[in-house]
Amino acid sequence: MTEKEFLANYNPDKYEKPSVTVDILVASVADELTTNYRKLNEKKFNILLVKRKNHPFKDKWCLPGGFIKMDETLDEAAIRVLKNETNLDNIFIEQLYTFSKVDRDPRMRVISSSYISLIDKNAINTIISKEASWFDVTYEEKGNLVKFYLNNGQDYIDFTIKKTLKELSTDRYSFEIVDNKYLAFDNPIIILSGIERLKNKVLYTDIVFNMMPKYFTLKELQQVYEIILNKKLLDPAFRRIIEDKVIKTDKVKTGGGHRPSYYYKYKGN
User: Fold this and answer.
1) pLDDT tens digit string along 210-244?
2) DSSP reduced 3-state for 10
3) Residue range 70-94: average pLDDT?
4) In sequence order, what are the beta bridge partners of 27?
5) Is pLDDT of 144 > 80?
């Protein structure tokens, strides 16, 4: 049988067909104003969630997501969904992981290709959709458990994930939801996976500058690194990380009750 004959007699209905979705973790590090004029503004790690209007998980929060169409690529679907669900476009976005647990969606067999999108929330002019909201994110690790706390000023979300080391040589982990009442689907695992990826990539790529304004002080940049890494950095260690990534400008930040500081900019701009 030739390939042409095979295709002419091929019956696609004999095979089961899973559905495919995209889910996007939109992250930012934004200023939280302080009342102490001698201190820099504190920074918070934020993610963007959308309240579901339909079943399943009606009225629960979730990452922006949706089904892929037959005539689009995964990347095209992610960009479309992000625009439709949040009103954001033309921002950094890259593929994260594929999630394929058999029972991850109560409706049917659904495989999700997840994405991470980074943005400087302070600089956006777009008005996000009314169903979307920015949540402050903090988390703590106790043994093999990771406890998350999300807050948008009105709704409070917490969930716990268990981390299990799969491969010592590659430092790979599997994740299991231990407690989750407020987020839809397996979104807690996607959130932790995205944060783990971001923590790794800030150390060997320039990805963090997608979250920065054009001009920034070194102290402001260090705050962002510390928020993402969830730990304090010694100044010498931080300088080694960014020494080949930034350029000093002749602009100076003054006022605020602290010493003037030079502004820097990303070397890749």
Assistant:
1) 999 999 999 999 999 999 999 999 999 999 999 99
2) coil
3) 95
4) 47, 118
5) yes
CATH architecture classification, 207-266: Orthogonal Bundle (1.10)
Q: Which pLDDT belongs to residue 253? A: 84
pLDDT of 152 > 50? The answer is yes
Residue range(s) occupied by CATH 3.90.79.10 in the chain: 19-204
CATH classification for the domain delimited by 19-204, as one of 3.90.79.10, 3.40.50.720, 3.40.50.300, 3.30.420.40: 3.90.79.10
Task: Assess contact for 159 and 166: CB atoms under 8 A.
Answer: no
> Cα–Cα distance between 153 and 125 in angstroms, integer?
21
The answer to whether 150 and 157 have CB atoms below 8 angstroms apart is yes
Per-position DSSP letters for 199-256, written without gaps between them: HHHHHHSSGGGGGS-SSB-HHHHHHHHHHHHTS---HHHHHHHHTTTEEEEEEEE--T
Residue 14 is classified by DSSP as G
The sign of the dihedral angle between the CA atoms of 149, 49, 71, 118 is negative
Q: Average pLDDT, whole number, for the chain?
A: 91
Phi and psi dihedrals of 253, rounded to 5?
-90, 125
Pinpoint the residues of the chain covered by CATH 1.10.10.10: 207-266
Which string of b and e fits 153-165 if b means at least 16 CB within 10 Å? eeeebbbbbebee
SS3 category, 61: strand
What tokens does 29 get? 């590090």
Its pTM stands at 0.91
CA pair distance 175, 188, nearest whole angstrom: 9
List the one residue out of 99, 269, 73 whose CA is nearest residue 187. Answer: 99
Torsion angle of C-alpha atoms 142, 104, 75, 55, degrees rounded to 10: -110
Catalytic residues: 131
